[in-house]
Every structure is written in structure tokens, then in C-alpha cells.
Amino acid sequence: MDNSELISRARCVLRLNDMGEFTRPSPRQYPHQWNWDSAFIALGLSHFDLPRALAEVRTLLRAQWRDGMVPHIIYPTGASDYFPPPDFWRTENLPHAGAIPSSGLTQPPILATVVRAMSGPTHTAQRDFLQEVFPRLLAWHRWFHTTRDADGTGLPCLIHPWESGMDNSPLWAGALDRITPINLPPFSRRDTIHVAPDERPLAPDYERFVYLIDCGRRLRWEPRALLEQMPFLVQDVLFCSILHRADQDLRMLAVKLGQDTYEIDGWLARTHEVFDTRFWDDERGLYLDYDVRAQAPIRANANVTFAPLFAGLASPEQAARLVVEHLDNLVEYAPGADSQFRLPSVAKNERGYSPRRYWCGPVWIQMNWIIAGGLRRYGFAAQADALVRDSLALMAQSDFREYYDPRDGSGCGATDFCWSAALALEMAASPDSSPHPGELKS
Ligand code: GLC
Questions:
Q1: pTM of the full structure
Q2: Ligand 1 centroid, distance to 114 Cα (angstroms)
Q3: Is 21 within 8 Å of 410 (Cβ atoms)?
């Protein structure tokens, strides 16, 4: 597929999954609306249908809970054959929930970054739209920095692996191992109907995912009770980096609208202050996730370690160590005898690396986009170009799949997958651009 074929095929995939007011991530595997999927999809749509892109964002924000959370799965058209169905979450009639059926969890807040990119020099989003969505984005970010703050750092805690967007990453293995599901509600998995079981989570992990939903619903998704009692409580480098970057973008929107930035400035300063202490491992030259329940770093080396570059949170020295010691390291992430395509989601020498299994090693296009943007921000243009080149090559070779085997580039998981298509449009249109980089840490 050449570039123009890739672009027209990407548009077809977005149209194929267009459900009117929202876009499902893929036809069979994901028939509802997902939070960060919709944000990436809006970015892709903005290249050829800005009104539809804005509608995607509006539908997502319409599902915002009264307390500020924007949920991870939204069921605007009711149940399907997808598990969990809307009523499994028991979120209806909660005083702090929203008006549209949804899960009780959230997902990485890339939305403000997307909204800012859509109102950048190439797209002129209406001021009315910005005025409409800004207070909602602000409320969501406030919810992260306060309602999900368990330790005074202002770094949000995740209560379920699904909130990270990296549902089945080996990052969560230790925390999940400590959990013994009891009185598991009856359920039947649907995710292995359309996708090969060896590309999906193992049964014991899936049982823990369901058990954690059951814990949340027994706590009636009450925020304080969740922080105090959920058996899974972590702070994730990718999530906090995306939020910090989104705080910067939200600040730019505030300036554009003539709004006060005092509160956002406070979040930005606080994250800057605590980020290294919480996540940086100077001995290994890696950012590591943190298990809040166990009060210990999560030792696994996953590609979230490069995400702080997207947010300008690394010093130039930290960035150089990440690139030289890890990104360009043949044993960990660089193509070599055992892989051809960048960037495995988990280091190849990590225990738990599995090149076809969901989040345990395959390449994900949205991770490549985030990391390429970060590398460019720090002047690593050759590495950023390589990530974009490999992403476009994977999609040209194996179409728009959910994830790809880094060894031979074969596609895995869901087919006709939207955020891959959306980001192909973004990468093909501006292969060397990172949307509006800000200041770096000095
Ligand atoms: C999977 C991914 C998650 C994504 C969802 C829909 O659950 O892990 O990040 O949002 O699929 O594509």
C-alpha cells in the first residue's frame, strides 16, 4: 500500500466504524465508545471531517459523571454481545455518576491534547466548541488531581488495570498476583470469540479483572472508598505523563479563552516536583511504575518508561540515558536478531515478554505516536522518524490492526482498528510533527 492508498483506507476504517454520534474502536471486538480511543479517533477525523471530529468529543464528554470523571466505556446505544454489558457495572442511579450508561472506570486523559491539536494552526475549531468543552476538561483534570489523589502528590491512582489503557501489561502482574478472587460473579468472556486466545489475557488474569469490577461495584464506585479499599492501586508513568502533557495543553486552551490558569499551574508545578522521586530509578536509568498498595516500585521495564518525554518531564540527561541505554539497546527495544519493528510494548529481555500477547510485547501504534512526539521534543529526530516509519510500514503491510508482532510485523487482535487508522492519518499528514511541544525540564 502506498501513502495515498493508506490514507484512503484509513478514512474507510473510520467511516466503517462510525455509529453516528460515536465511533466504535473496531467492528466486532469493541462495539461501544471507548474514552481514549475516541480522542485519537477525533484527531484522525479532524483531517477530513472536522464537524464529525467535534461531535466525537461532544459525545464522549456528554457521558461525564457529575463528579468530573469521564468514563472508560460508554454505551450510548445500550447492550450488545460485548462483556461486560452496561448493567454489569451497576453505575446507574449513583448520585455521582452520569446520565449515559457507562463503566465505573476512567482511561488516560489524552483528550485535552487532542482538543488543543484540533484548534491549532491547521484546524480552526470554533471558539464556541472550546468554550463548551473547556469546563468539562477542567473538571476531569481536577478530579484526577484531587479525587484520585491518595497520597497528597496529586498523582492520580488507578484502581483497575483497564484504567491504564494497557489492560494486560506485565506491569500489573505483581499487584494482580496478590489478589485472590472470591465469590466471583458468573460471567462469560466474549473477547476470545473474535480474537485468538493466545493474543488475549490468560484466564486467571481475566478473573482478577472481573473480580476488581465486582469490588468497585460493591463499593458503589464511591471515590473515597475506592482509594481506601480497592486491592489494586497503582500510579502509572504513562498515565501521569499523559495527564501532565494534557495539563499543559489545557493551560494553553485556558489562555486562548482568557481564563485564569492558577489552578492548572498548581497541578503542573506539583507534578514536576514529585515526578522523579516517585518514578525515576537512577541506577537503571528508567522510569518505573509505582504500586501504591505495596508501597514499592514496579520493577518491570515496559515502554511507558519513554512517556515522560511526551510531557517534557525528563531532563535532557535523563532523556539521553533512556535513548542510549534502552531505546537503542538491541537487547531491550531496538530491532535486532529477535525483532524487526519498533517499539515492543515491553522490553524483549523482560520476564513476561510475549510478542503476540495483548500488551505483553506487541507494538501499539498509539504508543509509537506518543513516544515519537516525546523523542522529537528532546531533539531525537532520527529515533522519532524511525518510530513513525515503522508504524506506517506495519500498517501498510498488515492493515489497521489493534497491535502487531514486533518480529515479523504480522497483525494481532482486533481488525479494522480505529486508532491505528486515525494515527496513520496524523503520521502521514505530518510525519515529523509533535503537536505543540512546550518547555522541557531543565
Ligand atoms: C483495550 C485496550 C484499551 C482500549 C480498548 C478499546 O481494552 O487495552 O486501551 O481503549 O481496548 O480499543
A1: 0.96
A2: 18
A3: no
